[in-house]
Amino acid sequence: MTAESMMFNGAVVLMVLVLFGLAWGFLILKIQGGEAE
């Protein structure tokens, strides 16, 4: 495994985690906002 492929894989994993985190946070905020009203 070369350093370039490791960096590329790391970047892909990082983007997926960021997108998943944003979606999860938005879902939690939406649920909490719905319960508060």
Automatic annotation (TrEMBL):
Highest taxon above the source species: Bacteria
InterPro entries attached to this UniProt entry: PetM_cyt_b6/f_cplx_su7
Main location: membrane
Cellular localisation: Cellular thylakoid membrane; Membrane
Membrane topology (UniProt): Single-pass membrane protein
Role played: Component of the cytochrome b6-f complex, which mediates electron transfer between photosystem II (PSII) and photosystem I (PSI), cyclic electron flow around PSI, and state transitions.
Family per similarity comment: Belongs to the PetM family.
Membrane-spanning intervals of the chain: 6-29
Molecular function (Gene Ontology), one example: electron transfer activity
Descriptive protein name: Cytochrome b6-f complex subunit 7
Keywords: Electron transport, Membrane, Photosynthesis, Thylakoid, Transmembrane, Transmembrane helix, Transport
UniProt subunit comment: The 4 large subunits of the cytochrome b6-f complex are cytochrome b6, subunit IV (17 kDa polypeptide, PetD), cytochrome f and the Rieske protein, while the 4 small subunits are PetG, PetL, PetM and PetN. The complex functions as a dimer.
Pfam family of the protein (one): PetM
Any single biological process term in GO: photosynthesis
Encoding gene, per UniProt annotation: petM
UniProt organism field: Crocosphaera watsonii WH 8501
GO cellular component, one term: cytochrome b6f complex
